[in-house]
Structures are given as C-alpha cells and as structure tokens.
Amino acid sequence: MAKKTVRPQAVAKPDPAPAPAPAKKTRLTGKELVKKWWFWLIAAILVVAIALTLACTLDYTIMSHIIRLGCAPKNVSTPTGYADIVGATDAVYNVRYGTIYADSYMDVFSPKTEGKKPLLVYVHGGYYLGGDKASAEPYCRAIAADGYVVASLNYAVAPELQYPGQVRQFNQALNYLVEHASDYGIDLNNVFFGGDSAGCHLVSEMGAAYTNPALATALGITSPLPGERIRGLLLVCGFFNFKNVRQTKFPFVNTAMWAFVGRRDYENYFRAWELCTTETATANYPASLFLCAQDDKFLSQSKEFEGVLKDLGVYTESYYPSSGHKMGHEFARNFDLPEAYTALEKAKAFLSDRTVKEEADVTPHVKFLLSTGDEIDVALYKRYAPATVENFLRYAESGAYDGTTFHRIISGEVLQGGGFTREGNTLTPIPEKYDPIYGEFADNGFTKNTLSHVAGTISMARGNAYDTATSQFFICAQDCLYYDGMYAAFGQITDPDDLAVVQQLVGYELTTGGGDGMPKQNVYVVQTTVYYV
Predict the structure, then answer these.
(1) Which secondary structure element, helix H or strand E, spans residue 203, and what is its range?
(2) Residue 319, SS3?
(3) Which of 190, 286, 389, 446 can pair with 440 through a Cys bridge, CB separation 3.0 to 4.6 Å?
(4) Which value, in Å, is the radius of gyration of the alpha carbons in the chain?
(5) What is the arithmetic mean of pLDDT over 250-264?
(6) Which residues of 399-430 are buried (b: 16+ CB within 10 A; e: fewer)?
(7) What percent of the chain has pLDDT over 70?
(8) Alpha-carbon span 481 to 479, nearest angstrom
(9) Cβ contacts of residue 501 below 8 Å, gap of 6+?
(10) CATH 2.40.100.10, the chain: domain bounds
C-alpha cells in the first residue's frame, strides 16, 4: 500500500495584538507644580522683573545703580604702541583738587619734556551716574605724549550729587590747576577742555559758562581764567540739548537725566536752559571739534550744536565717520577701530592748530575803581581788535580815565563813559590825546573782529563816521547783538560780580534835566589800573 504524502500547510498566524494607545498627557496639578524646582525659579525671576519694572517707574534709584555697574571700566582699549606712550609720559594719580564734594580727584599726565605745555582738562562719561577716569587713561596719555598736560577728572555722580554739583566741581578742578600751574608745567595761555558722553556735555556747558557771564552768574561760579584763554573743546559723542535728548532714544537716557536733576519730566526742570549749550553758547564760545560716529544715537545732538555754533560764527571742525562695521557710542576711544586712530590724529591737529605758540601772549586787563567802591575789571582781546586795544591802553595807562564819569545810559542796556568829567549836571569833555582810530568792525570792512556784544562786552563809542573813535567806550549790561558789526568790541568782563556792578549802574534813575540818558547819580572812575595776565 502506497505511503500517503502529507504536504506541509502554512500555519495561519495569529492576528497581531493591537498597539497600545499612547498614554494621555496629564497636566500637573497645582500641588504637583509647586513641588517642581523650576517653577520656583521662573516665579522668582518674574517677581523680580515685575518688581524692578514697577520700582523703576516710581523711582530712579535701582536703575541708576544698575546703569552704574554697566559703566564700570572694563577691558579698556589701548592704542598700538601704548608701551612707548607710557614710557614717554609721566603720571600723577589721584590728585585731590577739592574737599567739598566726593570723588574730587584727578590723574595728571604729562610728557617727559622741559618747558610749559598746553593744558587739556578731560572728563569721562557714564550717564552722570558712573564711570571712572581710569577708562580715559590710554586716550589721555596718547594726547599727553604729543606735548600736553592732561588732567583727567573724576567727579561725584548722581543721584548722590545732583546738578549743578558737577559744574562746581569742574570749576574747583580748574581753579586748582591754575593755582598749581607751575607745579605741572602748565601754559595757562593755552587751555582746552575735552570729554566723552556725559563728560562731553559737562565740558560743553563749562565752555559756555566761561564765555557767557549770565550763565556763570546763574551757576554761581567765577572762572579763574579769561574766556579767550580757553582755546578749544574736544566734544566726543556727547549731547548738548537737554530739552530734546529724550528724542535720541539713547538707552536709559531718561532714567539717567531723571536721576541727574531729580525730576522725571526733566525737560521742564526749572534750570533746564542752563543744561542746553544750544541755548547758552554765544559768539565768544570756544572753537570746537565734534567727534561722533554715524551710528551713535547722539549724532543728531552733535550736528544740531555744530549748526548752532556755525550760525554764531564760532569755528568748528567735525568727524562723523561711517563704515561697514558697527562703531557705536564713544568710538573715538575704542582703539580696536581704525576710525579711532583717525579721530585721535584729528584731535591732535585741532589742539596744535588752536595753540598760541608765543609764550609772550598775555592778556592785558584794565581795572576801574569807582567812586561807589566797586570795581570793573575788563580783559582786552588783541586778536579781535588790535588797534582798538592799543588805543584804549594808551588812554588807560596815561591816567586819562581817572576822574571821568559814566555819563550816559542807553535804554537801560548800555553804560557809556570815558569822555567827560562831571560837576552836577554839567559835563566837561576830556582832552583827546590821540588821533581817532580806524573802526575795527565788519561794516567798516574789518572782518577779523568777530567778538559779539554779549553781556559784559566793552566796545568803542564813535560818531556817525566809522573812523571817529577816540576815548569813549561803552559796556553792555545785557546782550546787545544788534551792535555786532557796527562797533568795535574789544574786551569782556570776566567776573560776574563786576558785570552785576554794570547792571546796577544802568538801573539808576535818569534825570530829566541833565542831558540824554545822564544817570541821576554821578558815578566816576577814581583810579585806573593796567595789568597783564
């Protein structure tokens, strides 16, 4: 019997078990959430952020200290060959220039050469809230190596010291440097100011204060130097119009200005006008070099102020670089940028060009002692009106002005004298010892005289003809710019107290029977003194 073959048959596979459904995500309950460490970290961060936000809207204190930390000097950039620069300069650190305010210290850098050198007073930035002179040392040394004494200032910062404390500190520092000029080999005929950011704003205001007696009076300071001795300003990446600086959207500028003056709507601060060099600068403002990068948020401020100075007839230069890389704020002290070296060379050239090389360049002064016991001291500026100054000095040195009265007041604005003695209401002309002089003013074709008739300016009186000035002069008690170009201005009162004397005299009641504008009170010159500084 044949054997039956059994063919293999495929065994049916069992159906695969269905895949388990994915587990549903369950939300953490409140109790479970509070047990997570990361929950408390996030919560703490949010609480701190909210608290800081609320605090900063109510007060500037916390944010001021955060800004201060950010302004602390770190990784300060140095120029190529800095070791040689250091070797060519001497340094005296932490010289105390005052005792009234905190941080009244300066570092003084000078070249290792003999003889007197021009002075640059430099002020660091930092929102007026922070920063330190150490950040400016490489820049200051690089200029010192070129033949300058450079005093780099520290100053008390806000909110611990608010405006105008920093202005008064700067004035103390300048007074110290003048008093100790011989110790540091300083040529006081050639003084410059420089600063960056907030320090730039400060030196711009000092430039105005020392050339605008009305501002100096408001600030309560007296310059230790005649205004024309301040030969120029280095204005590095600063702001100048306090009333519109908010519009620059510079980071944290609103908090900084709030802390600086103590008022959140700082544009409405009652002294805001003092902080606007765009308003306080006059035609006597020092020559200025502006340095600011195109991508700096303060660029508009530099351009606005430069335009103001040009309209006033003040000499300006500027360097506003633009390139394919970011330069940002305070580019001129960032020596990782090639533009910083260009800016440094421009600064050196500006200082050199504005330095008066003759050591004998001294300023003559004429001091009038009045019958009231007051004094009026006038600095005379030969560079504007040389023939006029020489004529005035001849009369003063000869004693011709002794006994002369201030015989005329014009509209309560101008005090005129130098031509008459007085008995009662009778005026007697003094002898004219010298021939009339050429009128050194623009309407007479003399364009060199750009001295403006601001408050405190002394100018020559004359007849209708241009070349008729002899001995008579007038002093402006307030700004009289309508005289610019028509009369030969030739000097300036530099002491606010002396300007106040003139302003008091023009306020005297006028008599109706004693001639045109004759003061009711006879105030005359007792003694005239000529001296040189």
Answers:
(1) helix 198-209
(2) strand
(3) 446
(4) 34
(5) 94
(6) ebbbbbbbbbbbeebbbbbbbbbbeeeebeeb
(7) 89
(8) 6
(9) 370, 372, 374, 375, 376
(10) 364-532
Distance CA 69, CA 108 (A): 25
C-beta neighbour count of 110 within 10 angstroms: 22
Burial tier of 373 (Cβ tally within 10 Å: 0-12, 13-18, 19+)? exposed
Q: How far is CA 459 from CA 274, 297, 463, in A?
A: 27, 42, 13
Q: Rounded distance, CA 43 to CA 63, Å? A: 21
CA atoms within 13 A on the CB side of 234: 30
Beta carbons of 98 and 104 less than 8 angstroms apart: yes
Collect all residues with Cβ–Cβ distance below 8 Å to 251 and sequence separation of at least 6.
297
Instruction: Band the pLDDT of 14: cuts 50, 70, 90.
Output: low
Is pLDDT at 474 greater than 70 in this prediction?
Answer: yes
Tell me what pLDDT residue 124 has: 97
State the Cα–Cα distance between residues 276 and 241, nearest whole angstrom.
Answer: 5
* 10 residue type, one letter: A
* CA atoms of 98 and 25, how far apart (whole Å): 71
**Six token digits for residue 8:** 């293999």
Which regions of the chain carry the CATH code 3.40.50.1820? 68-354
| Distances from the Cα of 415 to the Cα of 37, 175, 185, 332, angstroms | 81, 31, 40, 47
List all residues 6 or more positions away from 33 whose beta carbon is below 8 Å from its beta carbon. Answer: 39
Taking the C-alpha atoms of residue 264 and residue 16, their distance in angstroms, rounded to an integer, is 76
Tokens of 245: 């600086």
CATH class of the domain comprising 364-532: mainly beta
Q: Are strands 316-319 and 364-370 parallel, antiparallel or unpaired?
A: unpaired
CA 444 to chain centre: 34
Q: What is the CATH code of the structural domain delimited by 68-354?
A: 3.40.50.1820
β-partners of residue 521 are none
- Phi/psi for 509 (5° steps) reads -60, 140
Tokens of 379: 């600095």
Which residues are bridge partners to 417 per DSSP? 406, 473
Cis peptide before 226 (omega within 30 of 0): no
On the CB side of 345, CA atoms within 13 Å amount to: 4
Residue 508 has pLDDT above 90, yes or no: no
- Contact (Cβ atoms closer than 8 angstroms) between residue 145 and residue 85: yes
Structure tokens that stand for 75 in this block: 């990784």
Maximum pairwise Cα distance, the chain: 176
Q: What is the pTM of this model?
A: 0.64
CA gap 437, 88 in Å, rounded = 50
Task: Of 77, 110, 112, 114, give the one whose Cα is nearest residue 91.
Answer: 110
